Amino acid sequence: MNDTGITKRLADWAVDLRADEIPADVRAEGVRTFVNWLGCAVGGARHETVDRALDAMRMFSGPERAQVIGRTERLDELHAALVNGISSHVLDYDDTHLKTIIHPAGPVASAILAVAESLAISGRDFLTALIVGVEVECRIGNCVYPDHYDRGWHITGTAGVFGAAAATGKLIGLTRQQMVWAFGIAATQSSGLREMFGTMCKSFHPGRAAQNGAMAAFLAKANFDSSDRAIEAPRGFANVLSTKQDYSEIIGGLGTRWEAGLNTYKPYACGIVIHPTIDGCQQLRERLGDRVSAIVAVELRTHPLVLELTGKRTPKTGLEGKFSVFHAAATALLRSDGSPTAFTDGAVRDPAIMALRDKVTATSDTSVDEDAVHIAVTLEDGERISLHVPHAIGSLERPLSNVAIGEKFISQSIPVIGEKAARDLLARGWALETAVDVAQIARAGAARV
User: What residue stretches are annotated with the MmgE/PrpD C-terminal domain (predicted)?
Assistant: First the structure.
């Protein structure tokens, strides 16, 4: 496809889109995206990563106009976007656009909820902006994936900044030219390295994308200009950060083909490619019962991306454990656990889990789909039990229901803000589209002293 005017055409679409042009099923998926993000932001709010981030930046924050979800602190809009982006991703429990492995809501929802607190934004307008942001970041991600990701870029950060800019720009009423500039300002801040997986910096990426994207929109609102071809120019985003550029993925079918309707939600708090293994090992745990203690070998046959992303053989911290298919298999077999409690420092250092982890082997097989796994368990008496998971729970083929998303929300939120506040916040999240002012949702997400 001709690369002329890609940035401008995407910006024009984002500015001109009306709420009534978004199909009902896409809007419903947008609400699911928001509810899932909100629960993850509360659930991660007390993680030490968030504590350290707040300790570092508190002295630099401006007027306290935006809520840090799940905590008592209020910050200026840009710093609140950063912290909420970190907390929503730190447990690796958030949403996933499976075609690109982008976690769409972290950069987008974190930016616009912080901004919306001082603007009296209706739930309908907020939802429209959220969908615009998710659509923009996923389409840009499609354009450069998989080469961009394979080169080592963390696509949630690099594409997410465009989504945050688009959504914030939609909320604050950018003109077409200003949205073009916002995309350029976002492009020049696009960053995030996969080298950081397993460290606190991984969750910093969506937080920074939220902060930088919101800043891009506000700079553009003040007519701070940028290149008009930031995405497609020879020295623009797509050509500098990738050798693959499919611009039809950005502008093809705008308004008829919805990437925002393809979002998925994690049942397990770790890298998405581990989910088939956890799913299968939990099924085996149910079949084996106490006989799990008789396991002498666990063999996994997976897609090559699984070992590339989650091949940490001996994780030392909970964050590293999220990128160890070996740890995940052992924990699922021993505890039937894939929730945040499976990926704590204590869990990765548990002697029983470590002992079983050492019995897990994994081989790559290009014939195995990314959301599938073959598992074989051998017991002391020589019995061998095999299991094939063709599609993990949480995939497009086996999506989480609204009930499951709600249960996940409650289980994360009650330990942080208490049962009454958690259930109230969940109800407000599901009622997003009818909210008069989404600031009320943000404030309902505050922790009580």
Answer: 268-425
